[in-house]
């Protein structure tokens, strides 16, 4: 965990502290009265009242039962009222569920400055303020940044204690996809009464030893000069362009006992070069005797196409302004039972417990509302009796979301 703890001697200059100069014997001048007055006039609370705050933020995920699950902590930044933390907090973004976050800021006591942040007992620290939001509220911003007010209940009542800006950044290993078209020429025939039915198997060599299969092509029947359909693979499948790859060519057999025609060891970088130079690489057949060299075969592997493409993620679309809509259709026919009966799907429980329709609408709408700017959702009903007494099998109105507390 990088930047996991503060270091008074080595960290002050890097994170904003002001070390004493040689020969400086002046006592600590204390808070700047002008700064304190400026912040008080603007309603800033405890985070901005002391020039000696050493802030750290703790991030929680709020569960359905209200319990807080700690996700991570920033580093401690010493003697700073406008900290910019470096430590990143990793969260698995799931757009299909609501992910309410809670941010709590603490002023860390001096005795904890040289210990890992995970070891800091929060009960021993001064609580400065708290902010709340849903993860999707940050993701849907074009800047993927959201500024929240910090609130503290110190003293008399809840008061503003400064602000906290949260920035979200997608950390996918790579959004690059490589599209490849392979072909071969002069493959060795492994069948007696027809030509071979070749396919390729691509594997990545791992550091621990051995190979991890990446993909297979389709089988081209009865062909010693096959060209396969394009295959698309993410860069994460290869690890890196320099990572060694094994490409094996097999003759397909329906019983699963495929016969190896030949193999090559290469890399994605080499595959790209083969395409640029329109050159091929010869297959080899491994020798059964480790003392002998592998036999170089007549058959060659060519790369007809090598294209790197950028693939946009869900977050890219949402942060660029795309929205999700939510449409509801409710069955009001008698098949759902008498709405006054507790067995009916439309029964309104005096205790406040949601019926099946209310629960479904709430759970879906509670997520979708953050991906819709106006939060108006069209809803339809059918089989219901209108105030006029007429039974309608299709009526509509728009509902403004009230799910966002």
TrEMBL record:
What family does the database annotate? Belongs to the copine family.
User: Which Pfam families has this protein been placed in?
Assistant: C2, Copine
Gene3D superfamilies associated with the record: C2 domain
Entries under InterPro entries matching the protein: C2_dom, C2_domain_sf, C2B_Copine, Copine, Copine_C
What's a single GO MF annotation on this record? Answer: metal ion binding
The alphabetized list of GO BP terms reads:
cellular response to calcium ion; defense response
Q: Where in the cell is it found?
A: Cell membrane
Region called Disordered, residue ranges: 1-29
C2 domain residues are: 17-148, 160-282
* Keywords attached to this entry: Calcium, Cell membrane, Lipoprotein, Membrane, Metal-binding, Plant defense, Repeat
| Superkingdom assignment | Eukaryota
What protein name does the entry list?
C2 domain-containing protein
Membrane topology per the record? Lipid-anchor
Q: Does the keyword Metal-binding apply?
A: yes
Classification via SMART domains? C2
GO cellular component terms given for this protein: plasma membrane
């Amino acid at each position: 965990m990088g930047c996991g703890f503060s270091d008074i001697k080595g960290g002050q200059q890097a994170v904003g502290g002001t070390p004493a100069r040689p020969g400086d014997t002046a006592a600590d001048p204390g808070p700047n009265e002008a700064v304190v007055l400026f912040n008080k006039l603007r309603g800033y609370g405890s985070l901005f009242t002391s020039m000696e705050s050493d802030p750290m933020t703790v991030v929680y995920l709020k569960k359905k039962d209200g319990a807080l699950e700690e996700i991570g902590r920033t580093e401690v930044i010493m003697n700073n009222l406008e900290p910019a933390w470096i430590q990143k907090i990793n969260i698995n973004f799931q757009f299909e569920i609501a992910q309410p976050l809670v941010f709590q800021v603490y002023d860390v006591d001096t005795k904890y400055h040289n210990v890992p942040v995970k070891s800091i007992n929060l009960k021993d620290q001064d609580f400065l303020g708290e902010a709340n939001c849903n993860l999707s509220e940050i993701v849907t911003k074009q800047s993927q940044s959201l500024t929240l007010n910090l609130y503290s209940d110190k003293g008399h009542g809840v008061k503003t204690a400064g602000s906290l800006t949260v920035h979200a950044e997608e950390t996918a290993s790579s959004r690059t996809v490589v599209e490849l078209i392979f072909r071969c020429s002069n493959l060795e025939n492994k069948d007696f009464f027809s030509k071979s039915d070749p396919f390729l198997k691509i594997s990545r060599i791992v550091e621990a030893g051995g190979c991890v299969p990446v993909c297979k092509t389709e089988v081209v029947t009865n062909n010693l000069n096959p060209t396969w359909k394009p295959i698309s693979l993410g860069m994460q499948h290869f690890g890196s362009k320099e990572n060694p790859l094994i490409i094996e060519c097999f003759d397909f057999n329906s019983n699963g006992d495929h016969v190896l025609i030949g193999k090559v060891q290469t890399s994605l970088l080499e595959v790209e070069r083969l395409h640029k130079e329109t050159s091929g690489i010869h297959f080899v057949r491994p020798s059964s005797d480790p003392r002998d060299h592998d036999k170089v075969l007549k058959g060659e592997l060519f790369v007809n196409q090598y294209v790197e493409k950028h693939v946009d993620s869900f977050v890219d679309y949402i942060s660029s302004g795309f929205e999700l809509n939510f449409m509801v259709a409710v069955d009001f026919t008698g098949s759902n039972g008498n709405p006054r009966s507790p067995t009916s799907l439309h029964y309104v429980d005096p205790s406040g417990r949601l019926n099946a329709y209310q629960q479904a609408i709430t759970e879906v709408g509670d997520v979708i509302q953050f991906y819709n700017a106006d939060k108006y959702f069209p809803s339809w009903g059918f089989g219901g009796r209108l105030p006029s007494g007429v039974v309608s099998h299709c009526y509509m109105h728009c509902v403004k979301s009230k799910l966002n507390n």
